[in-house]
């Protein structure tokens, strides 16, 4: 999986600060850090809705489905109808956590890991062959795609306000988020904090 920035509001910190000063006669003040820190500390979120960011995410269909649950974002997802080059995400198996059904632990014995990987490769080969065979027989791609496994790679564009990105990242970097999804959230966090360094200091202390 990987993420990359597609577009972000130019100078998001300045735009957010400008909107936050709507009732002030000092809107053009170039000093933004102190104001943004104050807004973040006191939960004044509305100014953060005036700047946005779009990120391209490449991940499995299983994780894409989790991401699409975040309804405050706008999405555009790659259609399997146009896929001529199948790729699969290399998932590493983990043990189910006993105390939290949403968590897993990376301590499986090597034999179990090997058997899982071998089974995954068999499924990928079988599904790929069945997918190609179906289309060669005249089955439409929109029908043939039902034969593909959950770790088939997909691509989507995710667009939202800075407020939405802050809350999405804050939720999905937690330990009870699936590891593969957590990795995406950490990459999104790196992109966002690169454009808004104040977030490192206030929201996610560096």
Q: Could you list the spans in which at least 5 consecutive residues all have pLDDT below 50? A: none
- Number of structural domains: 2
The side-by-side strand order for the widest beta sheet comes to 1-2-6-3
Strand pairing plus helix content: what structural class? alpha+beta
What's the total count of β strands?
6
How large a portion of the residues is in β-strands, by DSSP E? 15-25%
Helix and strand string, N-terminal first?
A: EHHEHEEEHHEHHH
Q: Could you say which overall geometry the principal axes of the C-alpha atoms support?
A: elongated
Radius of gyration based on Cα positions: 21 Å
Name given to the CATH architecture of the largest domain = 2-Layer Sandwich
Q: Could you say what the CATH topology of the largest domain is called?
A: Gyrase A, domain 2
> What's the assembly state of these chains?
single chain
Mean pLDDT, as a whole number? Answer: 91
Largest sheet: 4 strands, antiparallel
Helix tally equals 8
